[in-house]
Amino acid sequence: MKQQHTSALGRRQFSIGLGAAALGGFHAVARAQSEGRIVLGQSAAMTGPAAQLGLQFHHGAKLYFDQLNAQGGVGRRMVEIHVLDDGYEPDRCAENTRKLIADDVFALFGYIGTPTSLAAVPLFNQAKVPFFGPFTGAEALRQPFNRLVFHVRASYYDETALIVRQLTHLGLKKIAVFHQNDAYGKAGLDGVTRALAEQQLAPVATATVERNSVDVKAAVDKLVAAKPDAVVQIAAYGAAAAFVRAARKAGYGGTFYNVSFVGTQALADELGKDGAGVVVSQVVPSPYQPSRPITREFLDAIKKGGNKVQANYSSMEGYLAARVFAEGLRQAQAGGGKITRESFIAGIEALGTQVISGFQVAFSASSHAASKFVEMSMLTGDGRVRT
Fold this sequence. Notes:
Largest sheet: 7 strands, mixed
CATH superfamily of the largest domain: Response regulator
Number of strands: 14
Strand content: 15-25%
Number of domains: 2
Shape: globular
Oligomer: single chain
């Protein structure tokens, strides 16, 4: 499998530079809207321990929208994303959301994380602003149904069901869960517990880590003592990497499974050679296998854009979310010519079941969860990701 091999430090320096550039343009939002642009608001971690999730997703989405704009946008309206850094903290995300709504963004797009997205819910509900493509699979954002919320990715229930199915098929039934101590961690734990219960099993042990922390000692001590066959990790890449290293140092010889939110390439960068054998479930097709149409399109876009975006699962998800968003805009325009929030919502629902560059999505007036696509990937010891 081919993959870019720039250094992790170089990637981060480059990413932070792009993030800062994106932040600098925020105050143009109101003016841009009045000029007929379609301005999206994003609150995401652009700095801090989860920064790579926000940076990479943003870069992938911006890559698509920049190329869409170069071709004339949608109905000659350009699409822009203005991002505010929340550091993966709910209170900062809520404040960002208030600012974005006050500036009359067309929609909120690509929020990163469960606790942050949940903090935005009452705000966008009150303002009746669409909330599209959050980087989370939490059930709390899917049930009960909310007409303003649109998911491009599969749920954590879908991911954890496949993880548990694979583990139990391998005869591994003593499964522990290491999870973040917040809404994200609980969503993943609920998924694992539910999948195990269907096979008359339960987690042999659970342990937590605080959000934006890598203090994993207590969790390692507790879970290693339980001697599980495998540990399912529901955390961001920093804590997940710290746990893998510390558990192995403590003599644990079992396997580690992660859900997609971990940030696959960031996890591989953090672990280096220690990543060999670590498994991650994925909710978008591999960005490294050009046999798939959406991957070919993505890699071609990167090349045409001057190879400024790293191909990884997080940037691929941002690109795909932007791609689907644009289809909704086109439907809105086709439905009546004028693109409004209401016509956009109707446009996305009108997509029905469609295959977009080989990736199937299914929207309707009663379901805004577009995909159940999940597959497994494994890190190698040289920073690569194998599917």
